[in-house]
Amino acid sequence: MKLVGERRALSAVIFAFYALLYFVLGMSNGSEFTRALYALAGVYGLAFFALVAGYFWARWYAVGVALYGVLTGAVGLWQVGPEPVIVFLAATHVAAALMLWGDAMSASYDGQTAWRERYHMDEPAVNRLGRSVIRAGVSLPMVLLYALAPKSAGSALAISVAVLALLGFRGLVRMKTWGVLALGAAGATLLAAAAVQHGPATVMPAITGGLVAWAVLPFARPMLRFVARG
């Protein structure tokens, strides 16, 4: 499937739609969830802007955010059933992910040679980074929702996790080792928080921490191998 420009435009429209939707909901909500809605608007807004700007990591990140929406829709279908809003949510995110998939689309972003040469990236390193950025795109909305949820908003733990995750993602796409370490620290903090809690309160930090750890996993073996060699 070609039509690269058209697919890129349609996927960008989907991310722009959800960025605007969550922003408007945040403005009109007036509840404890306002900050979480603004955070989701920022997540989708970044996906839209990065795709339009042509950042090499944009396709990976946008696919990750789309997969987050697919997971959200799947959970909604399981819990509530095929309500029109949930079906629309799931369908649009599936469409965005599919439109950004494939080698033809990759050529406009991560397939470019300039950034690979600048950072001295071979194919295995590119694949490793791609997997990590996609997984970070899935987990980042979850981290921000956990950090800004009414029960945890304002706590030192929530703030530290959000800061570590955001800094980690920035460092990751700039090929900085500290970015991977920051993401790993965010995941470890969430898993530790889940371990000391009881009942339903453990679910959110456990799932979110697991997703963040999943994002770091592609770099775990090379880093351990480097430490062992040193």
Quick overview:
With 230 residues, the chain is mostly helical.
What does this protein structure show overall?
With 230 residues, the chain is mainly α. Helices cover 81% and strands 0% of the residues. It is built from ten helices and no strands. Helix 8 (156-173) runs antiparallel to helix 9 and helix 9 (177-196) packs across helix 10 (203-229). The protein starts with a helix and ends with a helix. The mean pLDDT is 88.
Name the descriptors.
230 residues, mainly alpha, 81% helix
SSE string, helix = H, strand = E?
HHHHHHHHHH
Q: Categorize the overall geometry.
A: globular
User: Strand count, sense and closure of the main sheet?
Assistant: none
* SS summary, helix count: 10
Structural class: mainly alpha
Question: Terminal Cα separation, in Å?
Answer: 46 Å
Overall helicity? over 70%
Topology:
Layout: H1 4-29, H2 34-53, H3 58-79, H4 84-99, H5 103-106, H6 113-119, H7 123-148, H8 156-173, H9 177-196, H10 203-229
Helix pairs in contact: 1-2, 1-4, 2-3, 2-7, 3-4, 3-7, 7-8, 7-10, 8-9, 9-10
